[in-house]
User: Fold these one by one.
Assistant:
Number 1:
Amino acid sequence: MVVAENFRIAFKALRANKMRSVLTTLGIIIGVAAVIAVVSLVQGLQYVITKELQGVGATYVMVLPAQDDNRGPGIVARQVRLTWDDGRAILDQVPGIRLMTPLIGGRATVKYRDRQHDPDFVFGVNQNWPEVSNYTVDRGRFFSRLDLAERRKVAVIGPDIVDELLLGPDPVGRPIYVGNLPVTVIGVMEKRGVSLGTDIDNLVFVPFDTALALFGRSAADQVQLRLQTDSAEVVEQVKDEITRVLRVRHRIAEGQPDDFEVVLQDEILKTVGSILGSVTAVVGGVVGIALLVGGIGIMNIMLVSVTERTREIGVRKAVGARRQDVLVQFLIEAVTLSLVGGGLGVGLGFALGAGVAKALPGDWPAAHVPLWAVLLALGFSVLVGVFFGIYPAGKASRLDPIEALRYE
Amino acid sequence: MALIELRDVRKVYDMGAERVHALAGVDLDLERGEYVAIMGPSGSGKSTLMNLLGCLDTPSAGSYHLNGVAVESLNDVELAAIRNREIGFVFQTFNLLARTSALENVELPLVYAGVHRRERREKASRALARVGLADRARHQPSELSGGQRQRVAIARALVNSPSILLADEPTGNLDSATSEEIMGLFDDLHGQGNTVILVTHEAEIAVHALRRVLLRDGRVVSDERPAARDGA
Ligand SMILES: Nc1ncnc2c1ncn2[C@@H]1O[C@H](COP(=O)(O)OP(=O)(O)O)[C@@H](O)[C@H]1O
Ligand SMILES: [Mg+2]
């Protein structure tokens, strides 16, 4: 019998019980909607992170002071320190480093005339920052070696600051306050938007020493280092060398853990990947359960349907339907049911993903559900339909025509 | 060779405590073009016999040859094919599909015969016209009277040009005027060369047939061809 005919029969049967059909497929709808929503969000997240990390490249290395809670209990915690002296020692002793900048961050209010504003961060860096971190100055210039050497009171600001302080179309040269420190604006960073929860347009950069003056002595012990190696090939080697140099400088005995962390770009990618992986796994589990529940729902309703339509099955057999015709008919009905659920789920999931993406701050990319995710979701729906439909359909197909016709 | 040859056909229902011999050794030959009424009291095995003839059921013992084919040796697929092509079955309770138009009900055997949609439509329309329901093609069974429903069922039985029309108490659920109309239809179909076998326990219905087979307790107790209408 023609498959198209079976789909027609299936749709007719489902239309006859619209409410029941939708309720039955709720499990499938939820399961598929969850897949689609999560996939669209994970894709968005991956897009944002990858874009960000590709910007700095595979030669990007971060050195961070270790978190205190890394140390074992009972040991008297030595103050974790990472200083720019450490950075300079690394520059001296580790080959393969192209550029390095220290980084300290803190919070301070900026003021211009009667306007004031709290940027997300005030960062102290050196002249290498734009190149190390792939930032570009839009107007004016970044600090030079000379600005740093002479401890000039200058600042480079994000475009949001220009707006907030009403610095006008010509912000370069304006005198502003960063905390209590009077500085001159010498450049404005290019507009980048929000990235990973930080508004990078809402930042202020001052020379490293100026920042030390601003944030005090304790900040000098909590310096981060950002650097670019000569090539991607030497990254691992540079990491090992930095570790060696810092362990010596920090007098860390053999067997003791590092009091710092050297983080490579591909490690960040891996971490992100594993986080996204576990998110996906958890959601996958939830979805699996939803599909299972949905499948059992379909099996249940198909068994009901087979019982309700026992006479119909008898009639069909009496006029020449073979077992396989009846089997295929009910199987297609089950698949249609789960496929309709899958279709509704795709729509709902897409809407959910788009809604959440819209609610998230910043330039989260518009929800994009790749075709493979849709096909996968629909494919799984079909599988669920077949898997949970085969038993009721088999039952229908094996009905004895006489018994079926006599059924009340 | 006869169209139907039954030899010592038995049907036993095992009811646990007792065994019911619904058919206790039936021998029967039927020729192409016959018009037969199977009669007998309730429980005498008429429906059991019809179901066997219609290949809806298989005998417990004995042999059934239809067009020379030993039916008891056929598998599900082959039986389905015979039900589809050789047999047109008309039931007492019509057995039409609900929420399905008269036309689509009539089309059903053609669907399983693999006939294409357009040809199906044409043949089903013609069959409906033959039973006088051309103008009711779009109606659903719930919108038709009992007599009209049985006409639809007869059109469905006819549509695939079967060798035999089997009707198990086709007028059992109809009033006497409608019964006469339906019997008139069977008379016409027989006149057009169809083989018609019908079950009834009413003498007024049975007079339409040219041969009367009487069953009692699962056995043929008489088989007569009233001379008046013999040779038709
Ligand atoms: N499926 C069945 N299970 C058990 N007994 C049956 C079954 N079908 C018919 N019978 C018995 O077989 C006998 C003949 O039944 P049936 O052929 O329906 O008689 P009729 O149609 O002449 O009234 C009856 O005694 C009936 O109870
Ligand atoms: Mg009966």
Number 2:
Amino acid sequence: MSTRLFGQRVPRSEDPRLVTGNGRYLDDLGHDALAAAFVRSPHAHARIGDVDVSDAVDVEGLVAVYTYEDLVSDQAEHGSRMAEALPLLIPHPTLTHGRTPYPLANGEVNHVGEAVVMVVAVDRYVAEDAAGRIHVDFEPLPAVVGIERARDGGRLVHEDVPGNVAAVMVQQTGDADAAVDAAPHSLELELEIERSASMPMEGKGVLARWDADDQSLLVHTSTQTSTSVRQAVAAKLALPVDRVEVVTPDVGGGFGVKIMHPWPEEVLVPWAARRLGRAVKWTEDRREHFVSSAHERGQLHRVRVGYDDEGRLLGLSVRFWHDHGAYIPYGLIVPIITSTQLLGPYKPGVYRVEFTSLYTNTVIVTPYRGAGRPQGCFVMERVMDAIAAERGIDRTVVRERNFIRPEEMPYDHHLVFQDGRALRYDSGDFPASLEKLRKLVGWDDFAAFREQARAEGRLVGIGLACYVEGTGVGPYEGGHVRVESDGTVVVSTGLTSQGQGHQTMLAQIVADELGVPFDRVRVTTGDTRRFKYAVGTFASRTAVMSGSAVAMTARRVREKAMRIAADALEASPEDLEIVDGQVRVKGTSPSGANVSIDLGTVAVLSNPLRYAFDDAARRATQFASPADPARAPISPGDAPGLEGTEYYSPTQSTFANGMHAVVVETDPDTCEIKILRYCVVHDCGTIVNPMILEGQIHGGVAQGVGGALYERMEYADDGQLLNASFMDFLMPYSTEVPTVEIDHLETPSPLNPLGVKGAGEAGVIPGSAAIASAIEDAEGFPIRRMPISPSELFHLRQEHQS
Amino acid sequence: MKPSPFTYHRPHSADEAVELLRAYGDSAKVLAGGQSLVPLMSMRLAAPEHLVDINRVEALQSVEVGEDEVRVGAAVRHSRLERDEEVYGAVPLLRQGLVNVAHPAIRNRGTTVGSLVHADPAAEMAAVLLLLDGVVELRSATDSREVAAADFFLGPMQSATGPGELAVAARFGRPPPGSGSAFVELSRRQGDYAMCGVGALVTTGQESEITSAKVALVGVGDGPALVDVTSAAAGPGGAFREPQLAELLASQIAPESDIHASAEYRRHLALVLTRRALGQAHERAAA
Ligand SMILES: Cc1cc2nc3c(=O)[nH]c(=O)nc-3n(C[C@H](O)[C@H](O)[C@H](O)COP(=O)(O)OP(=O)(O)OC[C@H]3O[C@@H](n4cnc5c(N)ncnc54)[C@H](O)[C@@H]3O)c2cc1C
């Protein structure tokens, strides 16, 4: 084998296309399509009266207007399922009051932005003109906004959901409160994180084409799961699944919001396309994304912790309230993740966690990169800092004392993780990671820096935060690998790509396994015409799941190639190797006649039907052995072609970890908060491509900084989102994102053939925790709520001065 | 986010432009750099039926550095003014203010006169116009007039420019010799509208004593606030007396709380940034 690509900084093969503007995103497609626009609720909570379309009907270019009534009649006449509420994707026994929206509102709206009327017209301009002339009678109802109001239950989001409570869930390893009570020291903390959102640059979008002759539907959608959208669309439209194909074009970011499916528009657009017999497209605009996609992070936590003189945890009891918005189609994944991943690298003593998932009249909540972990990490790390402060112990020392030791791996927390499987860490060396971080940031030298800064009238602080991330959740992912007769290797996996570099990463793996040059490998993702069974891209799972699947498949294909080549070369398969796409007898030079055969030729030989269309087929004839008239051209159990499909399905998640340290400066006069240094130590097992990995970390850190210092959803009490634009929802610009200093540790996962763990979400997880820790250190008073703005810091200073 | 239907006009002279504005009255809007107007139209918060694009009007493209003032045509982009060395030599405060206006990409399209007419309460160039005793030249199909900075800003997003009127230029006075200026601001992110911004102009006499000190604040009220702080100057070389500064500012600013900052914090910033701006301006005046 030539130099291994695995572990190399292979430049991303996607980039030349994407950075030269040759990407194909959803809105680049379907210029001939009709356009959809929606009349959305301006109220957070209201009953819907009459819908008057008379002003709209004479807008030139209007094609159709649909309301919920049309879904009802469609269901009655055509047997579709369009009038039913959208599915509750992930039910759970504790989710006793799950409510999901209808594709178009049925009598009541529960958040600003909920779709009420669908308009289809010749283009988006006309569709919006017509939508603007449709008058909906709303009878406003009192809105429930914020955890406090939801919790007090005086006003209800859904009349049949008492107390606004969708679920209460408890997990415990014993009587944690008793353990706290019995501990020599204890603390109580209230900790809060506000809402933010995935906010991909490209919003959602759907294009559907109905082929009346074929009675089939081709859907393009900007999703993180094309296979599941396919199932959902077929079910909703009552079409046989084989009449629906879903293709994911280039996707301009997902960060979680596009794993939710089907979005109302994802079923309405195909439905309208079928009804109208025309291609229909909808491209979400930014305001729509703010008010009708999904948010995340809003949680309020109350913690009781008991510990010994050394700061070791004896008992940890956490109650928290999760604001999941108007509906809960994605179930309890986020709060379940918080309640389990909160533990990070620590042994909590006796642990109990209870959460309540609450309805509010706001946009729904679905996982956003990190998915409940940033909140959990914030809680646990604030607890660590509080213990350190109370005991007067260095913050790294308290953490070290509570770490799970490497020799305790695999470590079972005896809790149930998000996938319904054991929360059991497979590997990791937390003390080693912490040591690397201390070195990287210069933890021990900071006191001197602080003194020097103080002498100059400057305030600086250092903080850190540690996390563990369950990645690569199942149930499975598959890969298909085929060698073409020209030696090209075509790889397909069903999950999607949103710009992460999956094509490059998967090609590296396959190229290594098959012994072919990198540029001979072509990877397709997220196209149900190529691959039918897949789960999706979320939960930091692609390298683990599809990486393992394509590696296993490539190994299988390699075996077959060796068998066929061995026949042709009259050698034994064990004596063969593949170098640069040539199968040869080990140790021979590739020039010798009949001692090597290229993979393309092997592919030709694998197929007994061999018209001499091309050079490869002609070349193959020299190897073809005379047919044995007694044997069938294809032996039983064999198949033509040099290809294979394999699935990887692990018994549990694999747990990555990392630790961040931050140095901040806070301006004594203006209260500005500046990040001076941001250091990351990262352990995601074996690294496939360090450059792609660093890119993932950089992006995650940027979002972590956003969540800590800039982003929040500003809801007024009446449920209006006050900052639904990029002017007022402050994502950090490149000017606000610090240089990220990275060091890696590699503790391979024993769970998969590559030893890899997920890395996609990691960078964002400890942002709020680490930055809060650093601000607290600079200011000398506790930070219990994130994000924090200069204005809030100003008021905190005033509180703590008086 | 698509604008409602409108008719686009592209006049090639100011006469033609004001004639169009007369003809369409309230239903017409001038399109300059479009950096404020186009987003409003896309969000359907503004729905003019006629757009009069002044970008091709040759007569509005000029920047003239005169003996007493700098005259900036209505089609001149922020970035061009910002980078003009002759302008910088004559009135450093123009560049000092402009670098705080939005991001380079927006400055490449947005116009300085457009920003004055748009009258955002946080617009830096409004403060600059006030500090430099500026004037805006307005023209309609029937009339021309000049409005002094002090009378130009009527309230949030409201300037003295009436329907049918085109702002053809703004004139910024050259500060007297011995002057120094500065602009400091604090925004949530680099390039955002400021939570508070302060321009300062300090003039010193023969003995380097402060003969005049003025600040103009943005983001802390309905419009830019010009405050003469000469009386707070402690004397040659000395800093400004803080209690006096605070008192002078207090009556002139009326910050409000919004999602980015509380009124109290803005009030605090106003004083801190005023001190900083005056310090820098004074240093430059003395240099
Ligand atoms: C992200 C972002 C950040 C920004 N940050 C800042 C900032 O920090 N500080 C700041 O000052 N500005 C900021 N701006 C606004 C920017 O400076 C705009 O360029 C400016 O406000 C308007 O100038 P324009 O040429 O783009 O005007 P347009 O958008 O074309 O017009 C704005 C309004 O003024 C009217 N108008 C324009 N020119 C004339 C004229 N000659 N006669 C009569 N009416 C006229 C138009 O009809 C319209 O009503 C920001 C803009 C954006 C998009």
Number 3:
Amino acid sequence: MPRRKSPRKIVAPPVFKGYKPFGSSKVCDGEVELLYEEYEAIKLADYDLMPHHEACHLMGISRATFARIYESARRKIASAFVEAKTIKTVYGNVYFDENWFRCNDCENAFTIPNPRIKRICPVCRSQSIQLMNSTGSTNNK
Amino acid sequence: MKTIITANGSDVNATLDPRFGRCEFFCILDEETGETEFIENKAKLQSSAAGTTAAETVIEQGVKKVISGDFGPKAKSLLDRFGIQMVILKDEGQIIANVINSITGK
Ligand SMILES: [Zn+2]
């Protein structure tokens, strides 16, 4: 069975827009942008204490991708802590975006950024493609 | 039509590099002739905004499609604005030669 990957599912988005340090002896400058999937990786691994192989499965991504996202999240948070930076959460790259399609045959994901591009899968040329955020299929007639 | 594939190395035996902004090389493929050219990604060592710089390189090269394993939000919005199609391959360990074969239909 092929492994399901992308879109990254965020189980629940963070309940805050960001974090600000207070009482810093230096002027707080700069911010780090934490992606939603980075927040999710931290939450699953360090808050829910879920083993990584389960967390990546839940997010619908490979273990390598999970490890990369998780590492990136930890570095950003560490840098914000140490350097008294603001943490800002921003949209991650697939799930919240409306313009990603997925091929029903090869399961790769892609965008169709302008109307001149044929509405077919750019990898296998299948016409059976679907917007990721919709449940209905948008098969080409 | 030109397409960029993010690669771990500088020939078609390299594997797909899943990080768009910090990939090692860009493989520029001419889909009609099948010719490839590899250029180094200068953005890979940048401490920030690697995605933006990488997207600018893509735009400068005049390609219409970019194939990778991951795109950050800044790279995505820039590539969207320039009408460049993004493709995320689910199998990250693929060899560039195989990626080329599947997209050119060989
Ligand atoms: Zn397909």
